Amino acid sequence: MPTTITPRKVDFSQWYLDVIEAAELAEHSPVRGSMTIKPYGYAIWEQIQTVLDRQFKELGVENAYFPLLIPQTFLEKEAKHIEGFAPELAVVTHAGGEKLKENYVIRPTSETIIYDTFARWIRSYRDLPLLINQWCNVMRWELRPRLFLRTTEFLWQEGHTAHALPEEAREFALKIHQIYIKTYDEYLAIPAIYGRKSPAETFAGAVETYTVESMMQDGKALQACTSHYFGNNFARNFGVKFVNQNNQEEFAYTTSWGWSTRSIGGLVMSHGDDQGLVLPPKIAPIQVVILPVILNDSSKSLVLDFCQQVQQLLHTNNFRVKIDLKDERIGEKIFRWEKRGVPIRLEVGLKEIQMQTVVLSRRDNNTKITINLSELVTVVTSLLEEIQDNLRQRIITMNKNKTIEVDSWSEFVEAIETGNFVLAHWDGTEDTEVLIKEKTKATIRCIPFNLEPVPGKCVLTGKDSPQRVLFARAY
Amino acid sequence: MPTTITPRKVDFSQWYLDVIEAAELAEHSPVRGSMTIKPYGYAIWEQIQTVLDRQFKELGVENAYFPLLIPQTFLEKEAKHIEGFAPELAVVTHAGGEKLKENYVIRPTSETIIYDTFARWIRSYRDLPLLINQWCNVMRWELRPRLFLRTTEFLWQEGHTAHALPEEAREFALKIHQIYIKTYDEYLAIPAIYGRKSPAETFAGAVETYTVESMMQDGKALQACTSHYFGNNFARNFGVKFVNQNNQEEFAYTTSWGWSTRSIGGLVMSHGDDQGLVLPPKIAPIQVVILPVILNDSSKSLVLDFCQQVQQLLHTNNFRVKIDLKDERIGEKIFRWEKRGVPIRLEVGLKEIQMQTVVLSRRDNNTKITINLSELVTVVTSLLEEIQDNLRQRIITMNKNKTIEVDSWSEFVEAIETGNFVLAHWDGTEDTEVLIKEKTKATIRCIPFNLEPVPGKCVLTGKDSPQRVLFARAY
């Protein structure tokens, strides 16, 4: 473990890796480009899973599980899809001690094998909508891996749905998009910019891609999750047909949508500070950590008993609470839980037992107060809400300060160079989009949904533009 | 979907596949030997996951995630381990458009990559015990796949722990063994035989393997889950060392333990009948299904409103309940939910609304009663308990009827041939074990823990035997 965390201003990239190491979230594995998610990192993922899974199920989505391996020929059925994924595939050529007759790829995403299955499951309009999700691992071979953000293997949920009507499918993709926005905003305390992807950034094989783009503290964008409306593109390639109410055969309209462990990287880069990770209470695996202050062996059991009493009190009030029982001095304990971003720390020693108090520290603003045990539940309840709100407000302020409207090319270049989200006019062509990327490394993150469309002139070509779009450099 | 389910007495193997299809649990996938777990099958898995995960966490086990791919050289570090798994490996030779310098295998189990990691994580006795679990997919290339029981890919949890003392590690493996026994008994209503594996059946690389062996309705055994104590075998091969309290370096003592989707196959073959699946209420994703009896359009909304009222009532009392809204006749609905093994069905039509009653059918014994709405919660509560207990008692009776003590070779052969669990003396040698398997296809399932060890003479060789062991044919 590093003794110090590189400050953000010195080297944001190194800071990110230092925080992940200091908070014990994940580490590189012996397999190039892949990572091991450590218990604390995985516990965050479990929190996210619980929140998302509940919302999916409320919409009637059912979980299922499809095979890891996909016949390579399946991917080739959708021309754009294979074009997009071919360079990233891991291929199984041998199994059971023999060379296989047909190569299998490890799923980079499961549209192809799932549509092949849907074609068997769907017969009539009565079978629709078919709303399926799976929680699984996927693999995309990455040449420049980065923990959580780009790794050869990652965990995610991928939802896949089929509908009888195009507008119903599109609406469903947008419903999920709303769940994603809300989950980032309300639970991860990351209010984000969201909208539709430009054609060049649209998912391989999709008609439209909806995205949530969060601003990291260095002003770069993180594509936080996406939802896709496929029209009947995939359905045609995989024969996903149904007999409609007029007894005619039609292709189904489909969607897919995914949220991955990348979101944990987003949490780090949104809320972290130079002391380490900072977690929003609603997603923190541990909301309150109790640190026993043990000065000598004779008082040890007294202090631990009191700690257990405090833990029990908070536990029965549905807080996620843990006592740190490690055989370490209090300074080391404080340091560890600060790095791990636990919202509230409680210090408890002999003095506190005598006074029936605890010393409470907030991770988000470092304030420290002494409170009576009788008020503990009330204070913790309101402070956790306050911390959640404080973290969210910081992001809102940052988003506001670092989102700039520009109308000239020189302003555009400067705004991008200095790490901002830039709202600028674009002539709608892929050529211009590519040219801007070549010149500035900025891409169109989205055509925002929550921005009044006012026409103007393209910031590069001066041609007509129906509305501003969001440009930024991205992870 | 088949219109009929083959009766168990006609063809037990076909019956098993018919029930899986009729209950919509899973199906074969286009990748040879692998399966797609359908929503209803996956929902059972989610129930099992919840029950196990809670118990692991109560023991202090933390979830984490390790890479899918393992360098092939890792497996070769433990001679018996690679010998055991080599024939079943799927190998990735190409990725990112290139031939890899080193081949990777898809994990058949994760001891090797996890111990490689533990060697970095563990420094001192303060880091022990290290209690880790992961929920994941694994792959073992199967030539004769069978849904849930043997598929190339399956889902499971694999726990891996490291301890400072050998007896502590062994005790931990036995604690998990107890959780497994209890979960099968109390939740899946499958009281089973359990004990230690004979050397020939011990896991590749383990010192001891503890197993839960359930009797299927055809008298064959299903190895339902196992826990392994490794001594420091793996620790030596992977350098998992720690500095003990006397400041000396030692190898750690490790365990691993797994429960897989195979357990769903066990549920089918334990409780199913000729009408389809029968689920124990404690593990059933849907405990009560409400079937609206809609005779005409005019009464439709009235019936559906009443159904929702009944659902709400049961839902607020924490039952897992669903209304079947499919546009089908009541006969079809009853048939579907019978095949899917839902413990209680409620039929609700105009007549029931007038009388403020519901018609309740039990899946386990086909009884049908009419009950007042006011008594619904009380009746459902006690009936679900009764059904759980009834299914469990049936297994106890079957276990008793089909477990036979024999003392001669001819009795042994006959008892095995007629589909029984056989308790017989064995001389303790692997030669005899192999010979018995060759002659009868029966293997030693376990050296039972819950059987008084009384000495005798080996059923095949007549040599001394310290205690009876359990023989059976197995899946």
Largest interface: A-B, 54 and 54 residues
Supply the number of helical segments of chain A.
14
Principal-axes shape call of chain A = globular
- Poorly predicted regions of chain A are none
Proportion in β-strands of chain A: 25-35%
Give the oligomeric state.
homodimer
Number of domains of chain A: 3
CATH architecture group name of the largest domain in chain A: 2-Layer Sandwich
CATH fold call of the largest domain in chain A: BirA Bifunctional Protein, domain 2
- Taking Cα atoms only, what radius of gyration of chain A do you get, to the nearest Å? 25 Å
| Average residue pLDDT of chain A | 96
Give a written overview of the molecule.
- Two copies of one chain form a homodimer.
- Chain A has helices at 12-22, 39-58, 72-75, 79-85, 111-121, 166-187, 233-238, 262-271, 297-316, 330-339, 350-355, 376-401, 409-417, 430-440, and strands at 26-28, 35-37, 62-63, 69-71, 90-95, 98-106, 130-139, 153-163, 193-196, 208-215, 221-229, 241-243, 249-251, 253-260, 288-292, 321-323, 344-348, 357-362, 368-372, 403-405, 421-425, 443-448, 456-457, 464-465, 468-472.
- The radius of gyration of chain A is 25 Å and the shape is globular.
- Chain A has an eleven-stranded mixed sheet with strand order 3-7-8-14-11-10-9-22-25-21-20, with helices on both faces.
- By secondary structure, chain A is α+β, with helices and mostly antiparallel strands.
- Helices cover 36% and strands 27% of the residues of chain A.
- The first copy, chain A, has 14 helices and 25 strands.
- Chain A folds into three domains: 12-271, BirA Bifunctional Protein, domain 2 (2-Layer Sandwich), CATH 3.30.930.10; 288-383, 3-Layer(aba) Sandwich (Rossmann fold); 403-472, C-terminal domain of ProRS (Translation Initiation Factor IF3, 2-Layer Sandwich).
- In chain A, a hairpin with a 6-residue loop joins strand 1 (26-28) and strand 2 (35-37).
- Chains A and B meet through strand 2, helix 2, strand 3, strand 4 and strand 5 of A and strand 2, helix 2, strand 3, strand 4 and strand 5 of B.
- Strand 5 (90-95) of chain A pairs antiparallel with strand 5 of chain B.
